[in-house]
Please model this.
Amino acid sequence: MRFIPHSPTDIAHMLDAVGVRDVEQLFCDIPAALRASGAIDLPPGVSEQDVRRRLERLAARNSGAAMLSFLGAGAYPHFSPAVVDNILQRAEFYSAYTPYQPEVSQGTLQAIFEFQTLVAMLFDMDVGNASMYDGASATAEAVLMALRLQPKRPRVVLARSLHPEYRETVRTYVEGAGEAELLEAPFGADGRVDAAWLAQALDAHSAALVVGYPNLFGVVEDLDALRAAASAAGALLVTASAEPLALALLKPPGACGADIAVGEGQSFGVPLSYGGPGVGLFTTRTAHVRSMPGRLVGEAHDDAGRRGYVLTLATREQHIRRERATSNICTNHGLIALAVTVYLSLLGRQGLRALAHVNLARAHRAAARLTRGGRWQAAFSGPFFNEFTLRGRGVAAAVARAQDAGVLAGVPLARWYAELEDALLIAVTEVHDDADIERLAEVLDA
Amino acid sequence: MSGLRDKQAGLLLDEALIFERSAPGRIGADVAAETGVPQDHLPPELLRDSIEGFPEVSEPEVLRHFLRLSQWNFGTATTFYPLGSCTMKYNPLANEVAARLPGFANLHPLAPDETAQGALELCWQLQDMLAEISGMDAISLQPAAGAHGELTGMKMVRAYHRDHGGARSTVLIPASAHGTNPASAALAGYKVQTVEGNQLGLVDAEAVRRAMTDQVAALMITNPNTLGLFEREIAQVAEAVHAKGGLVYFDGANLNALLGVAKPGKVGADVLQFNLHKTFSTPHGGGGPGAGPIGVRAPLAPYLPGPRLARHDDGLRWSAIPQRSIGRVRSFHGNVGMLVRAYAYILALGGDGLTQATRMAVLAANYLRVRLAETYQLAQPAICMHECVFTDKTLEPHGVKTLDVAKRLLDYGTYAPTIYFPLVVPGALMIEPTESESLETLDAFIASMQAIAREARDTPDVLHNAPTTTPIGRLDEARAARRPVLRWSKSE
Model:
């Protein structure tokens, strides 16, 4: 086996040093009955060449990966510059553990410090953590944190326009954690949270209001109005951005008064990989740092006064505080956070805004083109970024015909919303050019 | 060396923060030209003017910045990394290639099932492989990491009891457990009750029997435990838990000791998580992403997170979330990119190779145990499994602590063992060599540890001041926590 270096001579030498006859003797603590049933019935190992061939065959059966695709809904196709993956392939980064020994982990630590800074800047929040698993679990952790910050308020209002899988994840996390109750805020004809409903529903029992920004329909919520509604009831405002590229142009959650702002970082240089790994982004206000879940990297100095970085505020965490920790998270998504850091460094202050503008302009061009013929209409009147919802008869059949023609036209929202059986969610990014949009219009009979 | 600071020599170059490399007007990526302005499409009150503080850096500078940072890291690819309980084995490059195949990398999670059959087939087969390896009946690949798997498992324990005699309040956890166990149990809504180990640090079936009531939902047990010892009474312990209607949560973090040797499912485990980034060679990534699939016995299968895979005549499909499922614990289907790597690893080793990996990992750990016991005091003298634990007792007379040994090892070009864990061992040094390290590497590590013991006796200050060959010395962590600086800002 090429990964295991021990020759028969090495093995004999080690057995001799240990003072046992054979390796089997090392397992003497395991009761015989358990040993007897331990054997693994799997085929023998195969060569690297054969592994590659089998994986290539499986990959070839993923025809969707090669199709012209307008699927979004929380995972977006974006171009990733070559530098990003080159850095991810540095074994010094990917084969390291969580940086417990800072003196020989400064690469990881400094990169995470830069990640925390970039994410905080993008969200315009005070502080970001070292990453969570994904946008959904980050949202769930944000809800638990809001409940900790507002211990006398057992209710959390989730926008129905928040990504359904984020809502489902929140539900799973909250079940069993105290007596918390979840309410769903309906959306109006503009695709935004129904403000009138909210004014009635938010009260002294409400710990937090959680909204998508942009939301699942691609619509940009009016955060200023939502902040006002939440504040009137003393509730925290939590935003979740499944497509944080939008924040390069949009008024950021921090400027709108969000208390906790989370997101999914996959858009920033990370392949789709059938939905994971992406990376959860998590930011909050300085005042709430000690209630925050997850790892944090902070600046420190050595005896000679040299600047370096360390894991810090660990007393919030499971390995110190055990059952009283702010979260159970240990391994996070460090390497994907690195990808995001490299990506955002490359795009930078001007590039990210320019890229966001490309997304915005092309999505609007596509929406205009697709609604031109009258076969499809905009489902919502609210403003949108790079994703929008159309409405038209026979969505399922239209999508199936498009698929036969080699185009994944979008996500039918009937998947999640019984009331939106004629709605189709379409994402347009910089990977789509005018010919792609024309092709989409053609197969959708627009 | 006037004008040249000591750490600017050779390869150990200072590297400013990316923000400090920034200058207005630079850019590191091409963006297509597009007409118009954002105001054409969005009302001005929704827009921001700029992303304050974002860097402006050219592509070659970005590359150099991160390449230099990479050079400041020890990883398993560069260095022996005997970090106990973390199973820092070799991460095969073939797996990296597999995960980057366009058919996987470019596949959208909502692609229709019939256009994702390769990914579904891989997931299906991986579920079967993990079931066979562990002896569990059903598997979910959804959780993103070990602790995420623990949380998922404890949520399932909760759902199970709700349907079988009513909710219970408490979870038993041995004192030697990883911190994630109590944190996960608490997050699932349970009170935690600690079970002390016996003189050998093992869980005693009699102690569990005494602690078991009809309010105990589960016992969480790590086997081998964090002392590297197999829990010999595991069958009796499981019996005691089951007798009172409780469940056994088996922390699979140390599964690298059991491949082909014993199956948790045959030892009384009802639920366990796999850490694919430990046992199944997917890279740790400097702190993830990992993957933490969960395995259960049949009675718990209805509670697994959904959606679930199902095989139909025309292929594999995701089914709706089953009614009794705990629901979903994240978006989409799991860290599929990591699942591809683990699948490639299991294919490459096969049943025999996995078994050989465990056998060699255990042999290497015992070799270190016996050789190092000449110089350091073992926490337990017994034959160990995949890791061995020492104390700093023999160093005490010289005023040297575990932390000093760990820091000095960095000077010797080795990463440090896990230190001060398990908590039940004072000054613990927890060493896990894995199957990947050659005899020469193990011998060099032993020589380093022996040299450090001599230094402790003769020149203890060398240890107190270590490390001295790294880009930076010991950092003042206490001060960093008192006045936390968690981001760069312009005013600095």
